[in-house]
Amino acid sequence: MTAETRYAASPAEVLRWNTEQTRKELLIEKLFVQDEIKLVYSHYDRFVTGGIFPVSKPLQLMAPDQFKAQYFLERRELGIINVGGAGTVKVDGESFEVAFKEALYVGKGKKEVIFSSKDAAAPAKFYLNSTPAHHEFPSRLVTRQDAEVVTLGTPETSNHRTINKLIVASVLPTCQLQMGMTELKTGSVWNTMPAHTHDRRMEVYFYFEVPQGQSVCHFWGQPQETRHIWMQNEQAVISPPWSIHSGAGTSNYTFIWGMAGENLDYGDMDVCATPDLR
Ligand SMILES: O=C(O)C(=O)C[C@H](O)C(=O)CO
Ligand SMILES: [Zn+2]
């Protein structure tokens, strides 16, 4: 297991960043390494992003040194979305079967979390987000039928997409974690457009189902001072709480968003008028 630390930065500080430093600070280039657990610990809301890719053996989630904890969920909660083949997550002896694009919430206090694939030829890929927690809520599988689903945008504005809210207050209780998955329709490329900020919550985006040879240009920064990061399939990006977080692909794609911070109100966004973006 590896666990890298990323620091928080102010809007004034990032004005000096060039492309290389921007990528080093915010982009998570490789999350899935065969038979390994990769974690990134961000100082924004102590949010952890990870990839767990069990192929030939089960993998147990341990507390990284950054936590100074006996076990991963001692003071945390966890959300997982499977972006690979069928997999199993064993939580203190209870097995949850997690299929492609299904989510699992695991509450604070669970001591042993073990990930495995059903078939090494079609291995599971568990994308993970974790945040500090102060209350134990029950662990629960969230299937696509359980999700709150909203369709936004139009083909004319190239932002026609379905937002699947998986780990959100309207589906199940959490302390501060929210997660979901947005699927763009064929021909649409813009996500989260019109753009917004929510200074109360940071957000991490994980882009996948980006077709071979295509890329997504992720936009971030203050609305009047935007920047971009070119991203490839199965890469994640940290979005500071003061930043917009939108993207345009060279094709349609899917992404997972995860948030943490002050509140659990998904709709609590400060929308930016598109002509005002700079
Ligand atoms: O495409 C979208 O719009 C989203 O998926 C928005 C994210 O869920 C988000 O930014 C929530 O704050
Ligand atoms: Zn957002």
Automatic annotation (TrEMBL):
Asked if the record carries the keyword Iron, the reply is: no
In which residues is Zn(2+) bound?
196, 198, 203, 245
Report the domain of life of the source organism: Bacteria
Which UniProt key words apply to this protein? Isomerase, Metal-binding, Zinc
Where along the sequence do coiled-coil regions lie?
A: none
Identify the Pfam families for this entry: KduI
Q: What does this protein do?
A: Catalyzes the isomerization of 5-dehydro-4-deoxy-D-glucuronate to 3-deoxy-D-glycero-2,5-hexodiulosonate.
- Give the family per the record: Belongs to the KduI family.
Q: List the protein's name.
A: 4-deoxy-L-threo-5-hexosulose-uronate ketol-isomerase
